[in-house]
Each structure stands twice: as structure tokens, then as C-alpha cells.
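HIT family protein: C-alpha cells wanted.
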Amino acid sequence: MPLFVDNSPPGQCIFCKLVAGEIPAARVYEDALTLAFMDIGQVNPGHVLVATKRHAATVLDLSPEEAAAVMHTAQRVARAAEQAFAPDGLMLAQFNGRAAGQTVFHYHMHVVPRHDDDGLGLSWRRQDPGAEALQGYAARLREALAAPPAGTA
Ligand SMILES: [Zn+2]
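Answer:
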């Protein structure tokens, strides 16, 4: 099945139109910063997307308030899915950029009820690079965290 990819400019993307009510969606919940609605693809029944109301492409473009609001809404939806669909587990998944599997470039998080036998695959290749490499990666991230974020200096 070909992958749907939405490359529309900000304000005209499919999720902006959905937030604006210009296209129909099975809405689940909304607050000031987020909207939760059913994913049309439904990898399992109860599969919900939590999107920011404002157009932001990836996690890098969110305000701290939006980032917190998305997780707050995702948790509420997860609790509702737990009640409504009695899954064996719940998966929260969030993709940033084409290489990570993002297909609609308006920030969203998937809340997916999971079942022991649902057959959903997730490729997760372990590499075990060793303690020295881990310390090196951590040092690079600590250095980046200590620098002022881009655009705020
Ligand atoms: Zn958008």
C-alpha cells in the first residue's frame, strides 16, 4: 500500500483543515492546544491521533506548553482507550521527519491500543556499542543541552 504523504504548506495541511473543521473527522477530545481524533488508518480499533491545534511540523517546533499539552491529552485518551477497548497494552508513538516515518508534517502523537496477538511489527535493531561509546554519546548531548537552544540566543 502506498504511503500517504502530505506536503501541504502550513495552514493548508490536512490536519490544519481538520482542526479548522473544514474537513470531517471523528473527533474524540479537544482543549485549548490539542485535538484528538480517530486515525483513518486504524492499525487497531481505537487508534487515535493527538495533534497540536497550531501548525508545527515536528517536536522541535513545539512550545514547552504544547509539548506538555500533547502528553496530557495522550494520557487522557490512553485512559479512555483502556476503558473502552480493554487492550493488553497501549502504544504511544510519535514520528519526526521522513526518516523517522512521519507522513503528515503537522505534529501528532499516535495512541494505539495493542493486543497480544495483533501482529503489529516494530523494527528495533539493537547495536550494543559498549560503555565508551555510550559515554561519548552522552557527552555530546550534555554539551548540546548546555548550549542555548537555536533561535533563543
Ligand atoms: Zn498543519
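Residues 10, 13, 15-16, 55, 106 surround zinc ion (CB under 6 Å). Strands lie at 27-30, 34-38, 48-52, 89-93, 108-114.

Cheers.
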